Amino acid sequence: MSAPELRPAALAVAPTLAAILAASAGVLLLASGATPSEPTRFAILLAFAPSALIEISHFVSSIIGLVLVLLAFGLRARLDAAWWASLVMLAAGAVLAIFKGLNWEETATLTAFFVAILPFHEAFPRKAALSRMEITPGWLLSAAAAIGGAAFLGWWMFNHVEYADRSWMRIMGDREAARAIRSSIAAAVVLMGIGVWRLIATPATPPVVDDTDPDFDRVRAILAKAEAAEPASNLALLGDKRFLFSASGESFLMFGVRRRSWIALGPPIGRHDERMELFWRFRELADAHAARAGFYALGPEDLPDTVDLGLAIQKTGESAIVPLESFSLAGRRREVLRRNWRKAGEGGAAFEVLPAGAAMTVMAELRVISDAWLAHHAGGEKSFSMGGFDPRYVAEFPVALVRSEGRIVAFATLWTTAHKASFSMDLMRYSDEAPKNIMDYLFVELLQWGKAEGYTAFEFGMAPLAGLDDRPLAPIMSRVGRLLYERGEGIYNFQGVRRYKDKYDPVWQPRYIAAPRRWAIPFLLADIGLLSSGGMSGLTKRPRPNSAGRPS
């Protein structure tokens, strides 16, 4: 293969390789600073180099070694600043190796590392400053272990040198030992300083942002013009999320926290060019807080980014999307749907959409319908990954109403997007007096309304656990998920949800969860369920029997 064909593969492995080289160079410099120089070379060096330069070279080299160990973390995270800093540190270390004791092998090794990293600048696209690099407790422990290992190596060598009983060599050895001790202590003090700085500088867990917080207006402004946004991005307005904002303030990533789980809901929202930086910042911030990072409700277009982040991926179900341009009630396949829609209309059902904010005028009626609907369904109001009935939240969106004989009998809140790529429905609730086929009537009217408004697609939402494989070589979580899908109708109407949405001939797209380690995914899914249901009390709340005898 030619060099241009190999370059993409080289760029893919460059961050990991550069991190290994930087860490190796750091350990090399720490070990070199803690061990005695070769006597003959050192005697030659003393003949032309002042002792102050030798002392400074030893002292600074050990600090450079520690810095390189820590920079390996930034290289692994593809930080542009870490690439530049590593080149400077490698070059400085190569020069100082000469003045420590004519260590030309060390100089050659550091120069080779410099040359190996130099051609791959484009593999480090992240522009975040080094001061924003979240050094994790594990990385600090690794650096401390490197310093401790180098110090132990130095102690062992100074107690086993062949010239320990020769008088002038003993004097030189004592000076070397003092120099090595100073170098190791300097590196340890710098590491302690970095550890203290990390405790002070690492941001606290971002607080929950609700409608009383000034940042809530920033969220609204970003949603109003976002290039990258899905209908479910509007869950940011629920008032229970935490946010990471981009440096420009034009993008954000929303997430929830439950104990050790930090769960990002969907990909970053806002500008396309700021997505990857927010992905990385979230993972690093969670890691710095010793938390489990998870990314929930990701789509196929997000998979390349999750691969770059080094995450394990698990499919959680499929989402139904109906292209509005091709949707029609004509044909035999739509006969039942067409009949249900027509019967509801002939029975007096009427559809309208109130603009955002206008629902406040009918909020009392909507509250009665919502309370009646909730009484017939398991669990209470939802949160996090699903909307709940809150007057302020409902008023954020357009609201579709169905009236029968002038009375509201059903409503749905609509999630819209800035560029009208797609829209969806959040809350959909109806009263006991609603026509029997109210859901079919409402969905058909919504599809026709969206098409008239210029939207290209309607998102029907998730069919949990749909599309998972139960093959002998499939991942164990896929096989368990498939078993639940086929046998778990008593827990949730998995197959019924899929069949109902299939009536509209949607395009099914997979949805995923991603985490740094595959074993963490079951814990993250459990925490997502608890976040969405309001804890164990919400999960165990049972519905009241439907007095009208209608299916709920």
**Rounded radius of gyration (Å):** 31 Å
Assembly status? single chain
Based on secondary structure, the structural category is: alpha+beta
Backbone shape: elongated
Instruction: Name the poorly predicted regions.
Output: 163-173, 546-552
- Report the CATH C-level class of the largest domain: Alpha Beta
Strand order of the largest sheet: 1-2-3-4-11-5-10-9-8-7-6
- H/E series, N to C? HHHHHHHHEEEHEHEHEHHEEEHEHHEHH
Report the helical percentage.
40-55%
Instruction: Calculate the mean pLDDT score and round it.
Output: 79
Instruction: Spell out the CATH superfamily of the largest domain.
Output: Gcn5-related N-acetyltransferase (GNAT)
The name CATH uses for the topology of the largest domain is: Aminopeptidase
Number of domains: 4
Largest sheet, described in full?
11 strands, mixed
N- to C-terminal distance:
62 Å
Pfam family, one: LPG_synthase_C
Subcellular location: Cell membrane
Keywords: Cell membrane, Membrane, Transmembrane, Transmembrane helix
InterPro entries: Acyl_CoA_acyltransferase, LPG_synthase_C, PG_lysyltransferase
